């Protein structure tokens, strides 16, 4: 019989302080409040903060005040700013709320972990990445149901504090996600292939289609729409995620370019696209048929717990409850 993952008894309604109220941060603030948590947000631009307040949420532009409240209320602090803006935010976290459990929703984990360590915050840090989003940005694009049913990576490093990991995993679960554990390095290698590479391929598809003139664009339908959707994402956000993961993304790009080069060669010499089309079909079916099984019988905090979680995540395991 499957047994639940065992964790220490703890309230599930820890307050949440969200730093950055764009699509992901704004959606997280909405989801946390909908789950019954006390939650407030900070945004550097007054526009998003004012929009959040107008929609009935607790938000402002005073980072120090938001973090001092997080310290007083022992809140989980969620960094939801783009990777280039991390350092000044983490500097204030280190000054105002160094004892709070800290997580993030940035799409790379290695660069964030390095920044957290530079600021002396690693002891209470747990990396996070909800695998959800749209091509839109800003507070108005947010949706409290954005994470429902989505995968939320909760990083488990060998030096991760078990109690901090549990708090972050519970936040993800409260937002409606399933939790997949992974290490920072393997996360970045994976998302280079399934997130960052698709962004660049979408940009290339959009440019190639547009070079065909207005007729090509007028004929564009489902395959173009689906393949180029994320090319509508704000360029600054795309650059931030791709450039922060340059090493892993370069490897993925090389593999994709080799496949396309081979397909072009085959098409030019034999008139066939069979090799790539058949391989792509099989790969897609593998994704569709993936069985995400429940992780059970891992005691958070027991010897080797983090590696056990990472191994389970590599094999398709996920947590749906704690």
Report on this model:
The structure is a single chain. The chain is of the alpha/beta class. 51% of the residues lie in helices and 11% in strands. It has a six-stranded parallel sheet with strand order 3-2-1-4-5-6, with helices on both faces. The chain has a three-stranded mixed sheet with strand order 7-8-9. Strand 8 (151-155), helix 6 and strand 9 form a beta-alpha-beta unit. Helix 3 (63-73) crosses helix 4 (86-96) and helix 7 crosses helix 11. The model is unreliable at 1-11 (pLDDT under 50).
Radius of gyration: 21 Å
Structural class: alpha/beta
Beta-strand residue percentage: 5-15%
Q: Give the % helix.
A: 40-55%
Q: What can be said about the biggest beta sheet? A: 6 strands, parallel
Are there runs of 5+ residues with pLDDT below 50, and where?
1-11
Number of strands: 11
CATH class of the domain at 16-183 and 291-318: Alpha Beta
Count of helical stretches: 13
* Envelope shape: globular
Gap between N and C termini, in Å? 17 Å
Strand order of the largest sheet: 3-2-1-4-5-6
**CATH fold call of the domain at 16-183 and 291-318:** Rossmann fold
Q: Superfamily at the CATH H level of the domain at 16-183 and 291-318?
A: NAD(P)-binding Rossmann-like Domain
Mean pLDDT: 93
Helix and strand run: EHEHEHEHEHEEEHEHHHHHHEHE
């Amino acid at each position: 019989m499957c047994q639940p993952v065992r964790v220490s008894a703890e309230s599930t309604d820890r307050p949440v302080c969200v730093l950055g109220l764009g699509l992901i941060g704004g959606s997280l603030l909405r989801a946390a409040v909908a789950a019954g948590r006390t939650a407030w947000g900070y945004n550097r631009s007054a526009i998003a903060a004012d929009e959040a307040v107008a929609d009935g949420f607790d938000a402002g532009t005073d980072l120090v005040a938001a973090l001092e409240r997080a310290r007083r209320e022992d809140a989980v602090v969620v960094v939801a700013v783009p990777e280039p803006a991390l350092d000044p935010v983490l500097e204030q976290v280190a000054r105002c709320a160094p004892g709070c459990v800290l997580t993030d929703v940035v799409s790379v984990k290695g660069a964030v972990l390095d920044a957290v360590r530079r600021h002396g915050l690693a002891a209470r840090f747990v990396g996070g990445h909800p695998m959800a989003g749209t091509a839109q940005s800003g507070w108005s694009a947010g949706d409290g149901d954005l994470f429902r049913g989505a995968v939320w990576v909760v990083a488990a490093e060998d030096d991760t504090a078990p109690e901090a990991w549990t708090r972050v995993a519970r936040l993800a679960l409260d937002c409606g996600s399933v939790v997949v554990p992974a290490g920072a390095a393997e996360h970045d290698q994976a998302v280079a292939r399934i997130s960052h590479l698709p962004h660049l391929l979408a940009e290339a598809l959009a440019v190639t289609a547009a070079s065909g003139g207005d007729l090509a664009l007028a004929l564009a339908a489902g395959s173009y729409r689906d393949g180029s959707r994320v090319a509508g994402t704000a360029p600054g956000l795309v650059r931030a995620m791709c450039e922060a993961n340059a090493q892993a993304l370069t490897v993925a790009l090389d593999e994709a370019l080799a496949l396309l080069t081979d397909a072009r060669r085959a098409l030019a010499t034999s008139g066939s696209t069979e090799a790539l089309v058949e391989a792509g079909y099989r790969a897609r079916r593998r994704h569709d048929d993936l069985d995400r099984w429940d992780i059970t019988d891992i005691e958070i905090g027991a010897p080797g717990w983090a590696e056990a979680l990472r191994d389970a995540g590599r094999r398709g395991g996920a947590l749906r409850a704690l």
